Amino acid sequence: MHDGISLEKRGIPTVVVVSEPFIGNANTMARLLGMTDYRYVALPHPISSLDRKEIDELVRRHFPQVLELLLARPKT
Amino acid sequence: MAMQRTTSQRHTLEGTQSAIEFCYSMGWSDGLPVVPPTEELVRQFLEYVERDPSDVVLVEPVAGRVITAEKAAANSIMAGCLPEYFPVVLAALDAMGEPVFNLHGASLNNGGAAVMAIVNGPIARKIDMNSGIALFCPGNRANATIGRALHLVLWNCTGNRPDEMDKTVFGHPGRYSMCIAEQEEILPANWEPFHVERGLPPTSSAVTVFSALQPQQTGYGGSPNPEDILLAVADTMSIMPPWHQEIMMVVSPDILAHFGNAGWSKADVREFLFQEARRLGSEVRRTHNFKYIPPPPESMDDKMLPVLERPEALQLLAGGGEGGAQVMIVPVYGLGLHAKSVTREILEAQ
Predict the structure, then answer these.
(1) Are the beta carbons of B318 and B253 closer than 8 angstroms?
(2) Chain B residues close to A21, C-beta within 8 Å
(3) pTM of the shown model
(4) Which residues, 6 or more positions from A38, have their beta carbon under 8 angstroms from its beta carbon?
(5) One-character DSSP codes across A11-32
(6) What is the pLDDT of residue B166?
(7) How close, in Å, is residue B77 to chain A by CA atoms?
(8) Is the pLDDT reported for residue A76 higher than 70?
(9) Which of B77, B171, B248, B304 is 20 to 30 Å from B242 at the Cα level?
(10) Alpha-carbon torsion (B244, B245, B251, B257), positive or negative
(11) Which residues from B are below 8 Å from A33, CB to CB?
């Protein structure tokens, strides 16, 4: 989250992807960095135990959302 | 000395019990009662170290949160410290701000590390710290409250709590407190105290902090021979992932006496455990799940991989009680690769 917001503040469009248990942390970090309404993509958990096929499926399902955020202008 | 005004918010409460309950209601406690940090006590602590309330004592490196001497004093008071302990707390916080300590990564990840502090030098005796029997137990005010103060600062000032940034799955019991003093007086003749090894003069006082994973106690009382003792220690270590860059080991008086009698130096102990604490490459590879290092290649399947990346990765300390040939092994978070111990001299105001 910190990396994503830092890049965004430098004018580089960035999309942050987290898994659902990390939503609280993502929101806290966004608040600390002064971008409370920073939007990001939250994926179902767990991820690290998925196989390649399941990862591909997850990416296919969420990629439109990633694109949408990448092309949107964040509120700064 | 003229001191700046303290700036923390004031709350007026009737009686000690209601103040303690108020601290609970504000979420300032680790679960145990805290000493209410009155303005008078905060001033007393700051005067003892001759610091202004607004002096910055730690900047949390990722979120940039600034911890002032005033906040450090308030948390030390809540932890139950005396003013004489405050120089130790301040030196420890300063060390925790060092980038290699990796405060953010080591304290907020989903593993479970606690900040362990080790105190060396005359101050440990001055404030009556425990370096002996029941070393990792409750019972000594300085050990208990200095360790607690560091964790209360993390709890109250850097978001190291589950309702903010902490993602630890299980946590670590040392997060209540994990602070010891080294028992320098039992070191064999050719063994230097820990802070001296780190380049400080023997007459100085120092604190070392690191992100400690779960301690493992082991030992061997069946022989005075260093090889026999250390083979048992090596067996316990061998289940750890390979190539640690830092592991702390507190060695008990009984074992140190055996080492001293046999003329074994720290270097001898390190070399022996570097050679003996190993695991077969194929066994390491089949369960490898560490993001810090790549898995060993299949070509290493028949090799014995060392738990210590090099002999000097083992940090040896003296401590604990007589009556048992024991060591306490305390791994450093992230194999000591992504987090390292940091030592700071404790400077007392004259």
Answers:
(1) yes
(2) 167
(3) 0.93
(4) A1, A4, A5, A8, A16, A30, A74
(5) T-----EEEGGGHHHHHHHHHH
(6) 86
(7) 27
(8) no
(9) B171
(10) positive
(11) 63
